[in-house]
Structure formats: structure tokens, C-alpha cells
Amino acid sequence: MIISEHYLGYPKKTLIVVTNNELAKIYTAFEREVEELRVIEMETEKPEARASGVPNAAPPDLDEQKKHIRVELYQELSDLLKSYLKKGYEEIILCAPEALKNEIVDAMHTDVMNAVGETVPKNLASLPLDQIIRILQESRI
User: Fold this and answer.
1) Each residue of 25-64: pLDDT tens digit?
2) Percent helix, strand, coil in the chain (nearest 5)?
3) What is the pTM of this model?
4) Backbone phi, then psi, for 109, in 5-degree steps?
5) How far apart are CA 4 and CA 52, in angstroms?
6) Is 19:26 a contact under the CB 8 Å cutoff?
7) Domain segments of the chain: what residues?
8) 10-46+59-140 domain in CATH 3.40.50.300?
């Protein structure tokens, strides 16, 4: 996708990361060109798959399962971002819901966090790329 002339380009090789509690999308941005690099989507178990089959068993702790899925997602994301930084990317723009920000920061490698130039406290993971770019550009003004 080419960024409109109305908006600023990205002078450095930049990774735009949008994530929530079960999905992460990574885009590459340089000058006026933005394209999707990778999508990480965590598998969530169906309720029937969680049933233990043991009579009188306590129900599974759904909050703990969701947290475990988030930890796996953010760890995989951290490893991937670290590998991209080694390939010459200079800056990261991280978009994540405010409620999950601390959890994400804790999971990220130090090199990854040092490359984060901007943190946008919004859940943009379900939006199409053109809307993500518009929101990011409007936050730069």
C-alpha cells in the first residue's frame, strides 16, 4: 500500500505492530510504502475440548488459560521482532490495548523495547491496513 501524499512517510525502516490478546499483525513501512509482513494468530480451545471427562472435576480457569495464550503470543512476537531488528529494521511502532500494555512490555526482549519509538494505546488489530495507517498518521500530527 502506498501512503497518501497528505501523510508523512517513514524515513527509517519501521515495523508497525498491532496486537491484542489473541492476534498480532506486523507491517513493514519505509518511505511511503507499507505492507504486511506477518500475522500471528493464537489458537483458542473450544469449550468441548477443555472438558476433562472426569466426573465432579472443577471447571477450567478460563482467565488463566487466556493469560497463558497471551503470554505465548507476546513471547512469539518478541522473538520475531528481535529477528527483524537483526535484518535492518530500525524502529517499531507498537499498537496495543492500554489494558494489556504492561503485559506486552514485560514479555518483550530489551532490544525490542529499545527499538520502540512510539506506543499507541489502541486496539487496532481488527482494522484494515488503510485505517491503521490513517489512525497512526493522525496521532503524529
Assistant:
1) 999 999 999 999 999 998 765 544 445 555 656 666 777 8
2) 40, 30, 30
3) 0.85
4) -65, 150
5) 53
6) no
7) 10-46+59-140
8) no
